Amino acid sequence: MPSLLSPSRKAVSKHRDLLGRSFTDESEELVYEETAELFHHFAHPERQTTDDTLIGEVIDEEEEAKIKKLPWWKRPSPYWLLCVLPFTAVAMTALLAPRVEIYTILVCRQIKPDIYYEKSSLAGTALLSSSASTPTRSQLCAADPVVQAGVSKFATMMTTSMGILSCLSTGWWSAFSDRYGRCRVMGISVIGLLLTDLNFIFIVSLTERFPGAYWILLLGPILEGCLGGFTSAAAAIHAYQADVVDEHRRSRFFSLVLGLLFVGMAVGPTLGSLVIRSTGRLISIFYVSTGIHFLYALFVWFILPESLSLSYRLRAREKYAQRLRTDVSEDTASLGIRTLNAVKKLFGFLAPLNVFFPEVKEMNNNPLKKKRNWNLTLVGLAYFMVTSLMGIYTYAFQYAASTFGWTSETLGYWLSLVSGTKAFFLAAILPLAIKLFKPKPKVVEMPSETVPLLSSSDQKTLKKKEIHSLAFDLNLARISLLIEIVGFMCMGFALTPIAFTASGMFWSMGAAFTPANQAVALALFTERGGTETGRLFGALSVLQSLGSQILGPSLFAFIYMKTVATYPRTIFFVAVGAVVVSATLLAFVRLPNEHDHSHATLVAEESDISSGSSAHSHAMLVAEESDISSGSSAHSHAMLVAEESDISSGSSAHSHAMLVAEESDISSGSSAHSHAMLVAEESDISSGSSARTILNHTDGPA
Questions:
Q1: pLDDT at residue number 444
Q2: Which residues cross the membrane (predicted)?
């Protein structure tokens, strides 16, 4: 006779049938809504859907056990990427200034040949060489307003083409990483980098014979954008870290990643300048960068262990197949519906932005009087305005080269000073200021998440939860904006190279805005009941991509082209205006009082269960464990969606995963109604009798 707590074959079969139906019913959740949940899917793959099953968990546990037995060089670890990310940052930033100078020479040769060939006695190639004659020719080209306008137009097309394609393709590559692994996406994105580098070197060499061929350089960003670009690569790297790092250690590792990236950004420009000085050729640094990207590609494709388990990838592929079958069935719909679906998919990358829509609340419980909460909307718009300032870099380089006669070598030193100041400020000065001036967080106690389901009330432990001051983070963001306003104004008024450099270093200390603003956004999102924080960060990523890769470069390029002949420093005052708009938006943010903020944070973290009664199943307990206090056994979490389960006080635990399609009757003197996630079903809880778990048939109460 089978044990009462052992599932029968009929129950297992029925469970598998329901499992199959659950995959079918939720087939679109992973991929169809992939854009809205992009960051959440990457950072928290184990919580992508509430239909994770016991079978899948068992398989994952078995694979994890096998992985732990592997030698260290075959196990996924966050330290793999920590070792190589600084080198990728070096390769990226080392090319910033030389690329602008090469653009200037290419455009000058095409539209102003009289300037480029003015000194015909100068032998050699000005583009590939950095001899004594080269700075003179480069400076002549950089000083011409027509050439500068042409460079701005060309650089904008290079940046925006990759930015638009990256935005459109990131959603697809995010789902692809779920199906085939994070390493695959990182490897494909670095192939795009290699193609861009090789195309650049080849076309630059070709323009010696065919000056107008530089437009073929656009092929590189187009290919890189189609292969995911920087956005998909950064998301995959973040996802890899989240896959292999425990939740309580993620902040530490993410901080390490950010710090190492800033180190690479500080070293890269100086390294590029030294390479150009030692070789005497501008193009030489591109060979070095291509070599670094090639080594990184070999590392990703052949050394870096995959972080996602095979079972997880197979389940994602099954969901994708279900989605494809659904799309085929939609082909029979009317033309209008098919057109609407096509438009929806085309602009699907904007779906995460609905997080910032104002929240509508009833006033005094009166449905006729409603009030909109614009706080999160204002914070998102402020973030968007600031991220658009990243598009000023190329044109700031052009301005410095034109105004001060700087070469790419000098620009590299300037960029290293600015990036180094930013890294030092974020790593040393800002943490010290926070430690000295930030109010101490309030400490509250709540039931620990690690308490077993079957533990009684006397076994429960309490954990401490810190509630941080939201006002401090908001004020830090506002002060950072003030620093950026002063920095940009000083850069615009600077008349000497030293003043321009000092202004840039001061401006870089406004970098605290991004982490502070994100902290405010997260707190406001939690305060209004938001729980899927991944959606919020996904929306912030979309804003950053739109601002830094599309709007920012286009705006500053247009302004620089129109003003380069009359007042080229206008771009800095436009940047001041953008920061002022951002500060104005933050000025209208009204924070909730400390009591409401603390309460909302606790709701998002834990669900409290009252002692001596059955639990109220909250919406947040879909895939979490809920503690039941004082003489009652654990509830069936996650899988009791459409069934009845009767549990008695003082009994042993029921089989929570296999009771999906069965009823469990338990003697009772009282009953309770489990709310929210039991979907109109009742769970009878009795006291003073033993539990009977009936898996094969349904009887009346004993």
A1: 56
A2: 79-97, 154-173, 185-207, 213-241, 253-276, 282-304, 373-393, 413-434, 479-500, 506-525, 537-559, 571-589
